[in-house]
Write a structure and sequence with these properties.
This protein is an alpha+beta fold. It has twelve helices and 30 strands.
């Protein structure tokens, strides 16, 4: 099953240069949103039409188009053709050479500077007006890479330039501002009160078709580990969502915002009955942080994690698969200073159970820098505790989880593997970062246990059964000692990204 989990569109809105607001502008721009925290009415009754809900919400949903300054000849095509999922759905080749003769009329292609520099449509998407003074929430991927953002209000053909106030790639959210007053703002619901089975209505601009409404239910809540963004707590819905819906509104039966449509799970890139939305409460919290600080302020622990499977749980003397396995620790980070090490399994934060890495990431990210937390963790099956003072997450790039080898890879033994000392030659040949130590994998026999487990040429074996290795000779000696073992735990680094694998004897 070649499923594809993808962000929806590469679309945007804006007709002025995207420049961050000054601190004074941000202070003035705090959005006075309306919130109705009451739970949705779930009394039984006959519903004959959702028209009143749509009429209430539609004016708050906008279309966003984006432009990019490019040099050279303009490619004549609709901005939706820049969406890879749109192209795949209609069987359009991805190669520029295959499409350069396309004669489709080009909307909004504006030449300037004697024709050397022109604006090219980048994409189309959706957004939600959240305050009467012009604040708009959308997805970061809708406006990413845009030089100009343009907003079109419902029932209005005029395009208004929007300013990017701030973005958060970690949650795929962005805050825009248009210079308009008394525009119709949506009311927020308390998304924490959602229940599976509640009616969900999606409003957006799929494929550039303005003000399209679809209806379904809340299929699931708290979806995470999808690999879309670093901070995931998605609402899943079967309301039809397609390219162009990104950043649009997901509302309840009373017309209150419960989420921002963000991604789809599909083979084709179009609706397959599984869509994901960022919960309204999470979106509002991130927006407030952007408006107050000019960025999202998150706590930072300083660990990289992976999920546990049965093999790993057994090697780390665990009774179950819950917890976050630490595969590397940032030097001089709060975690390092508290004594947390690679191979530890964090099970609780301030007494709250941690079931998986995403829960730990969301919990720590939801705390402010300076917060003091107590971590409960297991080391070789022994329970331990550590007091940690969080610092601020400095870079959104650090929030992007490495998508290298899958955590579910099943390990192997060192038969069929050749290794070499890590020196300047091997570092240059395999692109091994300076801080990574161990032995470089120079050959992996096809279908050997290590290959099955996911070990690849260019990887660095850092430890074998939790014993650090510094040379090829030491790795060979350890391998010989472990020949009778049915399973061997390796700590490896793939292009600087550490993880554990269990190598099983065939």
């Amino acid at each position: 099953m070649n499923h594809m989990l993808s962000r929806l569109t590469r679309t945007v809105i804006f007709a002025g240069l995207i420049a961050p607001l000054s601190a004074q502008d941000i202070e003035k721009s705090k959005a006075p949103v309306t919130v109705d925290p009451a739970p949705v009415s779930r009394q039984s009754g006959v519903i004959t039409s959702f028209a009143p809900v749509v009429e209430k919400v539609a004016p708050s949903v906008v279309q966003i188009s984006t432009m990019k300054n490019v040099k050279g000849r303009s490619r004549a095509q609709s901005p939706l053709f820049n969406d890879p999922f749109f192209r795949r759905y209609f069987g359009i080749p991805d190669s520029d050479e295959d499409t350069q003769e396309d004669e489709t009329p080009q909307p909004r292609s504006r030449r300037r500077n004697g024709g050397g520099l022109h604006k090219e449509a980048l994409g189309l998407g959706s957004g939600v007006i959240v305050s009467k003074d012009g604040h708009i929430l959308t997805n970061n991927h809708v406006i990413e890479g845009a030089d100009d953002i343009l907003v079109t209000l419902a029932g209005d053909k005029k395009e208004y330039p929007a300013k990017k106030i701030g973005t958060d790639p970690g949650s795929d959210l962005a805050v825009l501002k248009v210079d308009l007053k008394n525009i119709p703002a949506i009311t927020f619901a308390d998304s924490d009160k959602l229940r599976v089975g509640d009616i969900a209505i999606a409003i957006g601009n799929p494929f550039g078709l303005t003000q399209t409404v679809t209806m379904g239910i809340v299929s699931s809540i708290g979806r995470n580990d999808m690999g879309i963004v670093a901070y995931e707590n998605f609402i899943q819905t079967d309301a039809s969502i397609n390219p162009g819906n990104s950043g649009g509104a997901l509302v309840d039966i009373e017309g209150r915002l419960i989420g921002l449509n963000t991604a789809i799970f599909s083979r084709t890139g179009t609706n397959a009955g599984i869509g994901f939305a960022v919960p309204a409460n999470m979106a509002r919290s991130i927006m407030d942080s952007i408006l107050e600080h000019g960025r999202v302020v998150r706590g930072f622990l300083g660990v990289d994690m992976q999920n546990l499977d049965e093999s790993l749980a057994g090697k780390f003397k665990l009774k179950g698969k819950t917890g976050a396995l630490i595969k590397s620790v940032v030097p001089e980070s709060p975690a390092a200073n508290a004594g947390i090490e690679a191979g530890d399994v964090i099970t609780e934060v301030n007494g709250k159970t941690v079931d998986n890495p995403n829960e730990l990431r969301m919990t720590i990210g939801g705390l402010l820098p300076g917060s003091k937390v107590q971590l409960s963790y297991l080391r070789n099956g022994e329970s331990k505790k550590a007091d940690v003072t969080l610092i601020e997450q400095q870079s959104n790039e650090e929030l992007r989880l490495p998508k290298s080898q899958p955590d579910t890879a099943e390990p192997d033994v060192l038969d069929g593997v050749m290794v070499a000392d890590v020196d300047e030659t091997t570092r240059q040949k395999y692109g091994i970062p300076d801080h990574v130590t161990g032995v470089a994998v120079t050959r992996v026999q096809e279908d050997c246990p290590c290959a099955v487990a996911g070990l690849r040429v260019g990887d660095v074996i850092q430890s074998i059964e939790r014993t650090s290795v510094k040379s090829a000779k030491q790795a060979e000696e350890l391998s010989n000692k472990l020949k009778s073992e049915k399973e061997v735990l390796l700590h490896i680094s793939s292009k600087g990204v550490s993880r554990y694998i269990v190598v099983k004897e065939e």
